[in-house]
Write a structure and sequence with these properties.
This protein is α+β, with helices and mostly antiparallel strands. The protein has 2 domains: 46-135, RNA polymerase Rpb7-like, N-terminal domain (Dna Ligase, domain 1, 2-Layer Sandwich); 142-214, Beta Barrel (OB fold (Dihydrolipoamide Acetyltransferase, E2P)), CATH 2.40.50.140. It has helices spanning 2-25, 36-42, 65-74, 101-104, and strands at 46-57, 81-82, 87-98, 116-117, 124-135, 142-151, 154-159, 163-168, 177-179, 182-184, 193-205, 208-214. Strands 1, 2, 3, 4 and 5 form a 5-stranded antiparallel β-sheet that branches.
Length: 218
């Protein structure tokens, strides 16, 4: 009996090796499907970018140019959709000035910067560089958000306690049901938070954005 069991084990191992060789020969490799947590990490809408802008400086801030840049140009971008970044600015840091955009990208930027004055203009122009944290909910990015609004035709999510995401009924799983004034999942549990994939987003005026998502095909 022991000999037969060993023979069966050897046959199974041999078959496994043969299948592995055939798979490698065909150039195929078995890849485990990604989990929602993996997709949340790999397709996050939060991005860090470094940008350099050519901006005017008022004479009143000549003694404190970096503070002036922040007050006049960068701080007003907070929680606003900024088209050049194609996203909403969440924060910024490491502001530095330069006479050309290439110098601004260096961490050890110039110690002395000359602003440019043009004809009779009352302001000077300078290149300002900073590291920005931007919310870019591009299609196929993933969000984990809490339910804050729902009816029979839509599920509303709130991301980072600020951004709203609309999930139309047709983008909800077929197993979900509208029951007693709220959506419940396939197990009959009330949906309180969900991971969704962004379908599209667009600026909706006054610096805000409108996001549409789906819970199907995650």
């Amino acid at each position: 009996m022991a000999k037969k069991e060993r023979t069966a084990e050897e046959a199974a191992a041999k078959a496994a090796r043969k299948a592995e060789k055939a798979s490698k020969k065909a150039g195929k490799q078995v890849v485990a499907p990604k989990s929602l947590d993996d997709n949340l990490d790999e397709h996050s809408p939060i991005q860090r970018i470094t940008a350099t802008l050519y901006i005017p400086l008022s004479p009143v801030v000549n003694n404190y140019p970096i503070e002036g840049v922040c007050a006049e140009h960068f701080s007003p971008l907070y929680l606003q959709y900024y088209p050049p970044f194609d996203g909403v600015v969440l924060s910024y840091e490491n502001v530095r000035l330069s006479e050309n955009p290439e110098e601004g990208l260096r961490e050890d930027g110039p110690s002395t910067v000359l602003a440019r004055s043009i004809n009779e203009y009352g302001v000077e122009f300078v290149w300002a560089t900073a590291d920005f944290l931007v919310f870019r909910p591009a299609p196929n990015t993933y969000l984990k958000a809490e339910v804050n609004l729902q009816n029979e035709s839509i599920l509303g999510l709130l991301y980072l306690n600020y951004f709203t995401v609309s999930i139309p009924k047709e983008n909800l799983p077929e197993e979900w049901k509208w029951d007693g004034g709220q959506w419940v999942d396939a197990q009959g549990e009330v949906v309180k938070e969900a991971v969704c994939k962004v379908v599209d987003f667009e600026p909706s005026g006054e610096g805000s954005i409108s996001i549409t998502g789906t819970l199907v095909g995650l």
